[in-house]
Every structure is written in structure tokens, then in C-alpha cells.
Amino acid sequence: MTPILNKLIFGFTFFRERYFSERKDLYRRLVREGQKPKVVMIACADSRVDPAIVLQTDPGDVFAIRNVANLVPPYEEDENGEISYHGTSAALEFAVEQLGVEHVVVFGHAHCSGVKAMIHGQEGNKVAGRFVGAWTSIVDKAYEHAKAADPHIEGEDLDRACERHAVLVSLDNLMTFPFIRERVEAGTLQIHGWYLDIAEGELSSYDANEKRFTPLM
Ligand SMILES: [Zn+2]
Prior knowledge:
Number of strands: 6
Helix content: 40-55%
Radius of gyration: 19 Å
Order of helices and strands: HHEHEHEHHHHHEEE
Strand order of the largest sheet: 2-1-3-4-5-6
Strand content: 15-25%
Distance between the termini: 42 Å
Low-confidence stretches: none
Structural class: alpha/beta
Number of domains: 2
CATH class of the largest domain: Alpha Beta
Number of helices: 9
Bound molecules: zinc ion
Shape: globular
């Protein structure tokens, strides 16, 4: 067994003896009654931004969708109204329609490789891989928005601005899903854009009135 797999297996042993054994009643209730999370989060697959660790959640708290660059695609049917493989959309539909979550949080973060890939593509470069470029092009508009706000922005500042604008594009895309729009307009669902600075350990939230991200604590 390689050291990293040993680490994972030791981790499970530790989890079972401590965390799990201390919360057996909670796990039994979650199995008996089913999960009823109040929050669905769209977080990046990045190994540094696990919402359960960063937000110290308990089982049953958060329905987590993780993908490259924490993106929400627009509502999309394929030709002839067919539906193909829309993983993030399927998870959103399940969380909102079946689980009845009350909040959707798009959980953006600094130093995101997925957003960097989008920037790379927008600057005329070929993005490595077959799938990443197509996927991250969902937030191409984030680049345009960052440049429109400051035509001279570049480097790290551009990266950070695009990461934040990408969260806003995903918030707009959330509202293209009829089952989300209906609930937001009825006041039974709230959508939020959060941004985690993993270098500084700071969390901020998009304030629609001030049109900027402000610290959550
Ligand atoms: Zn990322």
C-alpha cells in the first residue's frame, strides 16, 4: 500500500473510532429519516477547498456538488428537448426539488486552476485537455466583465477578479433553471455567492446592494 492510501485508510479508522462513534445517533437518524440538508453548495473539486473542512459542517448539513471551478452551467436541454449527461444540473435539481434545500451557495475560491484555464483560453491560448476548456468556457463572460471593470487589469489581480466574476456568472446561471427561479421569486430559496481566500483564510460574500464581495466575519 502506498503512503497516501495508508493515510486514507488510517483516516477512516480514526473517523470510525472517534467521529462516527460519537455521532452514532445522528447517523442512525439520518438513515432512518433520510437527509434533509438546508444548503446545497457548488464548490470546486480543488483539494484545498473541501466545504466540510473549511466550514466545519456535520453530516446532513450540506449537499455538496463539486466540479472544476465551482461552476453552474446554464439550464440547457439538448436537441429535441432531450437531456443528456448534465451532472451538476442533476445534482441541483435533486437538492432543490427532492431535498427542498433553502439556500444555494456558489463557493468560489482564490488560486482556482479552473478559472485560470478559462483565462488562458480567453487570452488565445490552447487549454490543456479535452474537457476542461469546454467546461470552464461556461464563465468566459467573467473575463469580459473583469476587463470591462478595469481594462488594464492583469496577472494575479486579473485572476482574483475573474474568480469573483465567475461566481456572479454562476449566480446568473442558477436563475435560468425554472425550478430555482420560481422558488427564489416565491421567497422559499435564497442564492448566495461566497468567495474563499485560501492563502489568507478569509471568507466573503457577494453583496448585491454594494455590488462587491464583503467579509462574512
Ligand atoms: Zn478551483
